[in-house]
Amino acid sequence: MGQSSGEIIALASVFTFLAILAVALRTWARKRTKQPLAADDYLSYAAVIVMIGVLTTPLIIICVLDNFGNHMKTTPSGEPLPPSHRYSVCQLVLEVCGYVPIALAKCSILMFYKRIFRGAMLAAAVWTLMGLTIAWCTTFFFGTLFECTPIDKSLSLPPGSPGVRCIDMVKLFYAGASVDVILDFAILLVPLPPVLKLQMPPRQKFGVLLVFLTGALAIAASITRLVEFVYAGRQLRAGNPDTTYFVAPTVYWTMIEAALCIIAVCLPSMRPIFRGVSTENLLNSLRSALSLHSYTSRPSTHRDPSFDEQMRKESGASEFAMLEQPYQGTNQYETTAFKGPVKVEGKDEIPDRGILVETTISRNV
């Protein structure tokens, strides 16, 4: 391990810029395709704003003014100089609020899953993970805030001083970072089962998988952050006073994880910029493929044979798929039909001959 204040400032600047750029490109892609902003978009905006406010800004302040990232300054006799009040406040903000932008980014990707996938089990998984993410953020936000009480004294006195009561901070940090890694893995696994069941060419399926596996970037950062917490915890337990140096990686890896979460959330929405194809078209194709798979794999108990024949007459299609369950609270079904070449080849999945027509019909049954 080794770093300097200047290197940390450079890291903070680069990753913050990349996160802002990702959100800007996401917004441009949505506007370009004239698609309305959704909940996952707004959550990504909140994540980058909070990241700048509670991670990037205080991190740069203490690097510039308080020697954070370098070895602690000492007196002529070799005793470490006590940190300034400004340093203590900024460090508390970084430790307490670092969970918030990461949680917002996790919620953004979960809302993205909810927007493009259908099914009761997947919706239950999304809402469960959303609740766990909020619980994780809330628990460790307040746990870190009140790790030493009273707070005003803990900002000016080191842990263990008379009148300052502290819990085991090392165990708290270990727990927070460990749960973070587990949540990242769980969120990454959510879209894999429905994607792997898609009836599409292997190369196209691999491309869809890559879209969702970009979250592995955040997992790598969260694991590295956990490792740095373990190292810092050992130094704290050993009584090493050089906190401005060995605590720094736990802080800047928190910022890096938040930035990578935001970037991973935004990457799937940037497709229209680089491919010239609407994200919604990709998502609609994914929905159609999911529906087609569910129909061909098992018959729905809600289908009426006469409906199949009427669908063929109305759409002129020979192949179509219907959602297995009606919309909640109604008896309506939505059916998507395809007329034209079934197999498409080529880089952009455009048929060599003919036109592929997609027809969606809603019907009371």
Tell me the overall shape. Answer: elongated
Number of domains: 2
| Quaternary status | single chain
Query: Nearest-angstrom radius of gyration?
Result: 26 Å
**Can you summarize the main beta sheet?**
3 strands, antiparallel
Q: Which fold does the CATH topology of the largest domain refer to?
A: Rhopdopsin 7-helix transmembrane proteins
Task: Supply the number of helical segments.
Answer: 15
Note the beta-strand portion.
5-15%
Count the E strands.
5
Counting helices, strands and paired strands, the structural category is mainly alpha
Mean pLDDT: 79
Query: What's the CATH first level of the largest domain?
Result: Mainly Alpha
Identify the strand order in the major beta sheet.
3-4-5
Helix content: 55-70%
Uncertain runs: 292-303, 319-356
How many angstroms does the end-to-end distance come to?
66 Å
The CATH architecture name of the largest domain reads Up-down Bundle
In N-to-C order, the SSE pattern is HHHHHEHEHHHHHHHHHEEE
